[in-house]
Amino acid sequence: MKIPYQFIVACFLLLSFSASSARAALTYGTTNDLWDISRGTIVVRSSPSASQNAYAPEDIFGGNLRPRSPEPGDFIFADGFPTTHIGFIEWRTLAPVTIDHYELFSSGDGPQFGNQRDFARFRLLAKSPGATDFDLVLADVTPSHPFTFLHHTPSLVLSETIPTVTAQEFRAEFTPYASNFYNGVRVMELDAFGPSQPWSEAGINTLVEFWWKSTTGRIYQPQSWDLKANGPWTNIGGTVIGNGEIQKLYDDTHAAPGRLYRVVDITPAGP
Ligand SMILES: [Ca+2]
Ligand SMILES: [Ca+2]
Question: How far lies 25's CA from each of 19, 87, 104, 126, 223, in Å?
Answer without folding.
Answer: 10, 26, 18, 32, 28
